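Handout, page 2. Input:
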Amino acid sequence: MTCHRMTFAAADCLIETEAQLIGRVRAWVARLFVLEDDGAIVRPIISEDRQPLTLFASNERTVLRSAIACLADRFGAAHGPERGCSLGASTLGPPVVIVTSVESLSR
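Output:
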């Protein structure tokens, strides 16, 4: 699993990417989070139907680009470079609801 931390206009966010086998196909998965208190609190992003906001692609570069675009649509432009992740002491906070359904992410 790889962690990508980025700052957007209205939120500090975390993107976790990892390869998974879905059936017999290797796919890349991105999970999205909002960070609070400089990363002390990690809040998963979910849809109104309470499903985790998870993106899929055939490679890591594409799933990361999709995740950044999704977060930029909701929290404004990215500011500055990607930062390292060191969230070992972080606490899981309540979820953040940002879309009406996961299906609405399909373009």
